[in-house]
Each structure stands twice: as structure tokens, then as C-alpha cells.
Amino acid sequence: MLDIELTGYATRFNMTPVVADALEEAQAFVGSLVAHRLLHVSPLGQLFETERDHSFLVTERNNGAERLVMKGRHSIDFARRFAGGMRLATLRRTDRPDDRTEVRAEVVRLAKMLDKENGHRRHAGLVLGAKWLLDSYLGNDRILSYVQATVALETLLGDKAESDVVGIGALLANRCAYMLATSVVERRELLSSIKEIYRVRSKIVHEGQSRLAESQQYRLNQLRRICGRVIEHETKLIGP
């Protein structure tokens, strides 16, 4: 069970900021699991949704005492899509005790991305990037999914001041290439790939392209993998 602690007002009638923050952090955590290949999105599963409501308890703490003040049910759109669209990954064996222990330890480490300091997220860019990546995976509209994946990458690595000077595509291409590449050849491939990815983005954003060609679908999958690798890299820097 993921325990997200937030302070604020929650009501069963409206989506208050504190509830929205909680859902956003839950999305980010799930997105990080996808990035680390601990969870896998089933393309067929995206077509189905479950109608189950997802409930939560709101508690009030006062001088160390805790009492239940409200029980509410909220229909969470992403949770319905998540339940229908995701399954446990088959890429990693978890039948051996050592493997299960390793996976549990990794999940606990990923939860640290939600840490706060004085009520503010310590890793805000990482949280939002993982959230946008999950949105990209769960959507049925490929054009929107493409844009969401580019938003994820820009949230993770973008810098408005620098991108205004060199261009967002060139900035992200260089940052990804030098962050992720393990050889000169891979660095060149990443530079080339991200430039192509941003050519497609430009056609969508500036020319209104409404469908992805097969080659552009490949770029979407490639973009998602790059986002996942960046999230992996950044979460490792958080520490054990």
C-alpha cells in the first residue's frame, strides 16, 4: 500500500487541491514503476476500464492522537484506466526470494521521490515527469500521448532559459546523450533520435498533424523508453 501524507482540506463533493496533489503523486509513483519496468502497460488493456470507485480515508492528527473524520469515495479517472490497462511485468523474474527482495527494495526506494521538505516536493520535476509519462502510456489518443511524452521529457530535463537560446530539441538531445549514453556510438544515436522525435513534435504542435504514421509510432515508443531511462537515472541519484 502506498501511503501519501498531505495536509489540507478534502471533501467528497469536490476535487480539492490536496486531493489533486495526492492523485498526482500516486500517478507519479506508478509512472516510476513503469519507467523501471516493474510494471508493464498492456496495449489491449488500454481499451478497457473498470467502474470500481477507489476510496480513501481522511484522518486528523492532533497532539499525536489520530481520529477518523471522513470516509469518502472518489471516482479516479487514472485509477480506472490503470486497473484496466496495466499488469505486473513479466520482464523480471520474481519467483525467487532474492528477486522478490530486490524488487521490494527498489519499490521502497522509488517511493522516496515523493519526499517533501517544509511541505514542498524535493523532487518536483521527477514527480511531474513520471506523472506525464504514465499519462502518455494510458491514453488511447496517440497524438496526445506523443505530446504528453515530450512534456515528460521537458519536465525532467528542460530549462526554459537555456531552451530559449539553443532550442528545446537541441537542449534535450544533448542532455539525454551525455546522461544516458555509454559509448560514443550510442551518444550519436541518441542525438539523432531525439532530433527526429522533435521533428514529429513540431509537426503536431505547429502544423496540426492529427495521426501518427508507423515510423512516428516507433518514435513515440522510443521517446517513452528515453523518458523511462531518464527517470531511472534520476531516481538512482536520490540514494538508497
Radius of gyration: 19 Å
Strand order, largest beta sheet: 1-4
SS element count, helices: 9
Count of separate structural domains = 1
Shape: globular
- The structural class is alpha+beta
Distance between the termini: 20 Å
Mean pLDDT: 78
Element string (H = helix, E = strand): HEEEHEHEEHHHHHH
Low-confidence stretches: 44-59, 66-75, 84-91
Largest pleated sheet: 2 strands, antiparallel
The strand count comes to 6
Q: Helix amount, in percent? A: 55-70%
Could you provide a short overview of the structure?
The chain contains nine helices and six strands, in the order H-E-E-E-H-E-H-E-E-H-H-H-H-H-H. With 240 residues, it is α+β, with helices and mostly antiparallel strands. Helix 1 crosses helix 4 (124-138).
Question: Explain this structure to me?
Answer:
This protein has 240 residues and is an alpha+beta fold. It has one domain (17-236). The chain is built from nine helices and six strands. α6 crosses α7 and α8 packs across α9 (214-236). The chain starts with 16 loop residues before the first helix and ends with a helix. The model is unreliable at 44-59, 66-75 and 84-91 (pLDDT under 50).
